[in-house]
Design a protein that fits this description.
five-stranded mixed β-sheet, about 20% strand, globular
Length: about 350
């Protein structure tokens, strides 16, 4: 069972601030083919994602109209989120059906529901996380001791990664308060650049594009998290679905997965066009596109893959346990890759593995 008290405690505030994310809207830019029919008789499928480049599979799939294409006359509707707990709450309430999300929120949501709320049904992205520091204050990894380092949220994917790294350096940090040999300052990615500019933090362990925004403000990349993982691969974004929705509407889930696979295929074949498409959707969602000095380095540090990299999720869960944020979880059944592998086979692509964590 999850023991991250602050994650639970801050949830009402997050929900008050942004509801379950932005208002869900149909994909008005995507045209429904003549004669298209509804899938499973559904009027709509509600899809959630973050306004981060690490969620570019969803950004590009939406901007290119690929989700709507695969869903036929069933409308693709969307909601964007700033934090994992609010997306999990939206999934549990039925406000969304399928979502792109980081591994830690997926693990937390699964364990808190005793394995009944969600399944991870596919991968999306790897990488795109960096430790960026003020080079005037920190010039080496040893200099991190005694400094203030931001992470996005207590118990989130980057918070767990930083606490694990710090422990491996021999630093002692209370996981709840963030106080110790290094002070961990939990800061929303949206305000981390301002916190850096004001000097209230000395660095941050953050995902893209926040990392590149800090570099644009004079920060220096001290460590790329990918260097800490075998083959430099680790899951940063999964695709999850409500178990209730998966059981009731497998054809709709398969259609979304097919669109996701097509999105990643197009991204990898057309990186420059895909980067522009992702940035265009970010501008629509947030009202502001990323400048090239942020977009280009951020994009180059992320790889897009249908493989959920299940073994690395299991390792990330072990890191959370080690950090004292999670009691040892039973993750057996968190994955159901049946539909994804069906889609991959139909595309002539290699199937992916659940690392022994598939449905019972």
């Amino acid at each position: 069972m999850l023991r991250t008290l602050a994650v639970v405690a801050t949830l009402p505030l997050l929900l008050t601030a942004c509801g379950y994310g932005s208002e869900a809207k149909s994909d008005d830019t995507a045209k429904v083919a003549a004669g298209a029919k509804k899938i499973d008789g559904l009027d709509s499928v509600k899809i959630g994602y973050f306004g981060n480049l690490t969620h570019a599979t969803a950004l590009v799939g939406r901007e290119q109209g690929l989700f709507q294409k695969e869903l036929g006359a069933t409308k693709a509707e969307y909601a964007t989120f700033n934090a994992g707990p609010s997306e999990i709450e939206a999934l549990n309430s039925g406000s969304i059906d399928i979502g792109w999300i980081g591994p830690s929120p997926a693990i937390n949501g699964y364990t808190k529901s005793d394995g009944k709320s969600l399944r991870i049904i596919g991968g999306s992205a790897s990488g795109g996380v960096k430790l960026v520091v003020n080079p005037k204050k920190i010039t080496s990894l040893k200099d991190v001791k005694g400094k203030k380092i931001a992470t996005p949220q207590l118990g989130n994917t980057q918070d767990v990664a930083f606490l694990n790294w710090a422990a491996e350096q021999g630093y002692r940090i209370d996981p709840q308060s963030g106080k110790g040999d290094v002070t961990v300052v939990r800061t929303d990615n949206k305000i981390t650049p301002d916190a850096y500019k004001s000097g209230s933090i000395d660095g941050a362990w953050v995902p893209e594009p926040t990392a590149s925004k800090l570099v644009a403000e004079g920060g220096k990349v001290l460590l790329d998290e990918s260097t800490l993982w075998p083959d430099k691969k680790f899951v940063i974004t999964n695709i999850i679905v409500s178990q209730k929705f998966l059981n009731a509407h497998p054809k709709a889930v398969e259609a979304v997965l097919k669109a996701s696979v097509e999105s990643n295929k197009w991204i990898n074949a057309n990186p420059d066009q895909a980067k522009a498409a992702a940035n265009k959707q970010l501008a629509i969602d947030s009202g502001k596109a990323l400048p090239a000095k942020v977009l280009d380095p951020a994009w180059s540090s992320i790889s897009f893959t249908d493989d959920p990299l299940a073994a690395t999720l299991d390792t990330e869960a072990a890191h959370a346990v080690k950090a004292g944020l999670l009691t040892k979880p039973d993750l057996k059944g968190i994955y159901d890759l049946t539909l994804l592998n069906k889609v991959l086979k139909s595309e002539g692509a290699s199937t992916v593995d659940d690392a022994g964590l598939g449905v019972r």
